[in-house]
Queue: 4 jobs
Job 1
Amino acid sequence: MSKFSKGKKGKVPAASTAALPDIVFMLLFFFMVTTVFKEKESKKVKIDKVSVEVTEDMEKNVLAAYYWIGKVPGKEDDYNIQLDDDIISDSDISKYLKELKQESKYKEKWFSDFYNVFKIDAETKMRLIKKVQDQLKDAEAFKVLYSVDKK
């Protein structure tokens, strides 16, 4: 008969890490394929955009200031202006843009590649939009794009 010993047990072999890079790259590839980029939207202002038949797409990665002009959620006749991430009054837009113009990133491209992108609610009064446009003139920000839905 054979004799069994209880004293010495064999060591467990180390887990093989040879397949680990393959798994990492598969996960990386999966997330690259399934990621969806969202359009910049406002959470502070409600917008029902105007729709038109002919549109032109904006270039990717341009320097821009985004304006949302629309109704305050829960209030009928109250409109807000959101510039980038902040609610701002129409009289402060020129000051904000002049400060932005002094930043090194914007300074050299201000007149050539800087845009003001408007997303405006269909019910917004033109008087408010005109006030904003006057502030843009004061700040020498002349390129304006209007974001709309395609019909």
Job 2
Amino acid sequence: MATPKKTTPAKNAAKTDAEKREALRGKIAAGEQRQAQRSFADQAKDAADSALGYVRANPLKAVAAVAVGALVIGALTRPGRRAGVKAGRKAGALATVATDAALAYGLSLLDGASHVADKGQDKLSDLGATVGSKARSWQTAASREGSQLSDYVVEAARRSGKRAGKTIDDLRSRLQH
């Protein structure tokens, strides 16, 4: 009977790592071969599709990039520099007009706020008059109630005084007899 050869796990792992590397090299070679077989038209179509996908995913970034590119190209050419100078002058005039419009708009907002503040003051004045008249009526009612209470207390004190006087007279007369 022959005994099978014993292999260590490290040798098995080394073989599998080597096999893995070889398989990866084969995949890379196959990919390079496919890439070489592709035509320029296919590559251009793929690039265009990926660019279109990016533009659809990020429209604002794409527009900004095109605008910056156009400005750079325009600044590099002589007619573009002349146009930039003219545009700068016109932009200055446009900025002046825009500033005037913004100031006019701001003043109209301030006028509106002033008008609203005046209305608010009128409403507060009306509210103050209403509260004042209510307060005066409550003051009158409280004064009347206070006067009545005072009269009652005075009358109660007078009656208590009379009773106390009678009780004292009674006690004196009993003590004297």
Job 3
Amino acid sequence: MDTALIKEIQIQKKFATATYKNFVALRYGMIPCCVVDAEAAALEKELCDWQSKLKCETSCVGVTVNENVGYLTSTPYVDQPKVSQTSSASCPSVTYCPDNSVLENILTSIKEIQTELNKKIVDGFVFTQETVSTEWIIPHNLDKYPNIRMEMPDGTDINGQVTNIDVNNMKVNFDVPVAGTAYLS
């Protein structure tokens, strides 16, 4: 098997392990015994992802024909024959392509996506009850009867009697006074 591919798989595995350990630490409070630098693993993974996607070879220089691919237009290229690698690089080597139109189109597409995301209506609401109470009044203004999940400050799920007052307000009653957070969607 290609050594560059093995190295890339190891980087992906290291990132997955770091992400899982971070999740377990945040969700369950279980600090891992072995320290894994999650930030370094994420950077290595992003670099590998970027390098594996950037396959533009020197054959694209001087080509002026553009092909439309989704929102992006890109300059076509011809894959070069594979060359065995003996270096200990973390990822396959990348050839720089001086065609700036690809980058400009990607940036334009990102701006379009951000604009679309900003137009989206928020479809969720988080309510926090700071003081203990047997009744929570939740003004969510979602203009619907939402689903609700509640938890105590320590993360333990709790259940209560949910009553929808109207499409923008709800009430939750508990047998004992509790504080916590309600997630509405």
Job 4
Amino acid sequence: MRDHIANAWAWVMVMFLEPITCLAMAIYFEARGEPTVGQVAVAHVIMNRVESDDFPDTVCGVVTEGETYTAKPDLPIRHQCQFSFYCDGKSDKPTDEDALHWATSIAWGVYHKQIYDPTNGAVYYHADYVQPDWAETKRPVRQISRHIFYKEN
């Protein structure tokens, strides 16, 4: 019986907490220095991708999407990910506990559809100090602080 309960709890952790953790980590590393609305916007881009047929259908799938090594499919190729923090070669261990708690609160609210989408459905974004090639083929919808948000044309 104890094993059954432990397995059930593990399932609950994966099904309900893993998406929140992945979303919170993305908010923390991609938008920690942004105002709250900017952090919410980054979270919504991830959730909008989950809802799109063009991206993985889980939060963690979206956050970890990118090129991997053939011999090691769980190892991302540096700088070949959709979200740069995931494969930039830097530590993914949060160091600012307050910022992580705030990111987790935002993740919970966005994941449970309790916080509006300030991007109006955007599925792409980049910092305003870079100019990715793909941006020319997308429609900008809004700039929030240092991030520019886009939809498909």
